[in-house]
Specification:
Its EC number is 3.4.24.-. With 418 residues, this protein is α+β, with helices and mostly antiparallel strands. Among the domains are: 72 residues, no CATH class; 86 residues, PDZ domain (Pdz3 Domain), CATH 2.30.42.10; 129 residues, no CATH class. The chain is 42% helix and 26% strand.
Amino acid sequence: MNTLISVIIIFGLLVFIHEWGHLYFAKRAGILCREFAIGFGPKIFSFKRNETVYTIRLLPIGGFVRMAGEDPEMIDIKPGYEIGLVFNAARKVSKVIVNNKSKHPEALVVQVEKIDLEHKLIIEAYNDEGERIQYQVDEQAVLVQDEQETQIAPWNRQFGSKTVGQRALAIFAGPMMNFILAVVILIAFALFQGMPVDEARIGDVTPDSAALEAGLQEGDQVFSIDGQPIDNWEEMTAIIQQHPNESIVFEVERSGQTLTIPVTPDERVGQFGEPEGFVGIARPTEFSLMGSIIFGFTQTYMFMTMIFEVLGMIVTGNFSLDYVAGPVGIYNYTGEAAAMGIFVLMQWAAALSVNLGIINLLPIPAMDGGRLIFIGLEAVRGKPMDPQKEGLVHFIGFALLMLLMIVVTWNDINKFFM
């Protein structure tokens, strides 16, 4: 249950902040945002505020912001079609009733001759007397079909009408917010837990850990492990990781006395799928406001470099599916982090946030990076790409991503449950 709650909170936060970045900068550019969704598939819960419907959907595998103009906009109303018109106080059309007009007795039923709901915002139609009249349409008018209302999107409210810079920022804002979130989480971590320092000294000792069972204590200064001198934390953890399930001897100083303590590290799966040792000790810490801020940025940068190292392996061909994790793998790793305490979970959440930001910026169709590539090509060519061709590329990219997710998930199941 703790794992499930942790996963819901962490993924909810990461997806929310990512999509909120898209939403905020899209609205700043004047784009009509029809929906802000967490998850995909059928709606579980929704409410509307201002022009946007906020929804939670069944499948918790991401989210989206549906901006006007990214998809085919609305119902095609052709000349000769009968529609109902409802007017506001300014005598502009506020509702266009497409069907079920009998349910709207207040509507004026007319026969369409000409309709422009993007540029001129007019409807030219014949009334019952056969007169051709032009009606002005309100910028926030809605189309009503099957009793469902859809707000019209004049051209100046559509994604494609904005400058290259505005559109690029609206797309880049999602990953950018993930990087900012990681920095904020890590600053908070350093403020509450203390800023980790690179010393060969033992910080917190995890309950029921190999370190506690062997007798290691917080504050112990480590001189050597198995006779090998230790100068800093990185050297100490490197030796521990190399000896899963093998006894190693710590030489430590405690209260002016030198002690020799044998410890047998437990085993866990390392960053690249290999077994590694761990004893359940935390890095020593110190408290500093400025140091915490610096730590937030430097640790975020470190996470970025680690992720790019894995991506580099893909390019060079040294890639294994064990280097990546799907929903099942991330669920299990989150459970392990939750079991180690809130501060380990905070670091894990920051790492996931950085990972989400970078993966979304890769030049893959259907991802933010793929969309930025098309915006960049438009800037170079001086004209947009064919929307149908671009949509096809994104569709193929999305299908391949779903296929990769299935393969990775199956690999996770094999690793953890078979």
